[in-house]
Amino acid sequence: MSDHFIAPVAAHEPPYYAVVFTSVRTEGGNGYGETAERMEELVKDVPGYLGMDHAGTPGGLSVTVGYFRDEVAIKEWGAQVEHRAAQQRGRAEWYERYTLHVAKVERSHGFERERG
């Protein structure tokens, strides 16, 4: 068994927001991985950022859900200079298509099996 522990973002006290980014990438990396890692580091500096979940399918569909305390935090992340540059590069190079959904979370709970 691996030392790496995988877990979803913990449930938070509602209300808060989920930003759902679903995408299909183009062929080739072209710096995508490095930029994605940089974005994961930068978003942590946004006041009101709560965490991120990410999953991908073998067929190439990728889903990233970012959780934010309020719309102010979402707007701050959207206006971040490096993030804006990454968005432009994404449309020019990395994505065949994507959708972005912003939802207000009104209920939230979690479960974790005891490890033993």
From TrEMBL:
Superkingdom of origin organism: Bacteria
Going by the UniProt record, its keywords in alphabetical order are: Monooxygenase, Oxidoreductase
The molecular function terms in GO held by this entry are: monooxygenase activity
Q: Does the keyword Amino-acid biosynthesis apply?
A: no
| UniProt KW Oxidoreductase keyword | yes
Q: What is this protein called?
A: Antibiotic biosynthesis monooxygenase
Task: Tell me what organism the protein belongs to.
Answer: Streptomyces dengpaensis
Q: What lineage, starting at the top, does this entry show? A: Bacteria, Bacillati, Actinomycetota, Actinomycetes, Kitasatosporales
